[in-house]
């Protein structure tokens, strides 16, 4: 029974890694599309999100089947419940990549990336892609050292998120309302993407260390510099 | 054993109702604070969110304990797993109420509610409060007729969300960048709050009808009129 259970867990882990890989592709394409106004690339991300959704639902069904058939207890049970939560976070990360792609498509042929914030959003995009890659590696290897890298990248993204609002709310901001809307939404999407990655990383760490950090415990920068 | 299980489910249902009641109080105070720039009321919401978080975590622990001790299968298992997901959605709704309160506090003593959008945001706030009340009633009574009311209110909120962007992106918009930022974030918070309520309502309906709608299936209006 233990043997069967551990085979099931390997299946769960493999599916989490697979979904994280798809999320990494999605955020990489979405942030490149956003930076270069590449509507074709944006369309690819929007099309592919349903695959992430389907794989997350399939993983949830597998987890429920494991609960029903193998009735794990103690740590084994928490691993399966955590997998349900990780799949929800990964699915949400895919949605956010899609939102960034939708912003790009909505503004096309104009640029979605607001004037004066190009370097900031390019950096945020690179960091979100790096976070997704690190999260995939963490899920594959369970190397907890990666968790710290994800937290550090999230801190850098939070700083950039704050800097976007400092820029938009400064006297020097010349952007029209549409640019302000885009900067506000895009910055929030980038920041939330990394928050979800931190939330997944904390669950992986918890499963290794038993040090439970509730899903509610990610630091969320709600809005600009005065917070 | 069935008897014990049904007592456990009643406990779970009672806790979901209790959390939904706290979320209703939070969104009622948060939207009134946002509409009247009442920073004291906003502070109450921000303070109280940790109670919602704690109750959601306690409910999750109870659900995991039920899985471990009573090892439900089939529909019983799905009820417990759904409770975990509903608690996550309710916890998120509490976070969103807190975000609306934080916007109010951040702009104080100025008004967080942007000029020209007061009636729109007052209406969105009333609808979000109504949705939270209806959701609490749905969780208490399992009366599926309420699900339709929640979907209809969510549709109205989506229309108001779109109208906010139509206003902000129109030539008549005179708001400064800070007002555009506030309108963008506040409108998204209001819209997402109702999305989460629809997601919970769908799970309640599923548990009664077996008609599963994945959590990923809520219609999310990402941004303004051109979508």
Automatic annotation (TrEMBL), chains A, B:
Keyword Coiled coil annotated: no
Gene3D superfamilies membership: Phosphate transport system protein phou homolog 2, domain 2 (1.20.58.220)
Ranges for domain PhoU: 17-103, 122-204
UniProt-annotated location(s): Cytoplasm
Keyword set, alphabetical order: Cytoplasm, Phosphate transport, Transport
Any GO CC annotation of this UniProt entry: cytoplasm
InterPro entries xrefs: PhoU, PhoU-like_sf, PhoU_dom
BP GO terms, sorted: intracellular phosphate ion homeostasis; negative regulation of phosphate metabolic process; phosphate ion transport
Alphabetized Pfam families for the sequence: PhoU
Subunit structure: Homodimer.
PANTHER family in UniProt: PHOSPHATE-SPECIFIC TRANSPORT SYSTEM ACCESSORY PROTEIN PHOU (PTHR42930:SF3)
Biological role: Plays a role in the regulation of phosphate uptake.
Entry similarity comment: Belongs to the PhoU family.
Protein name, entry field: Phosphate-specific transport system accessory protein PhoU
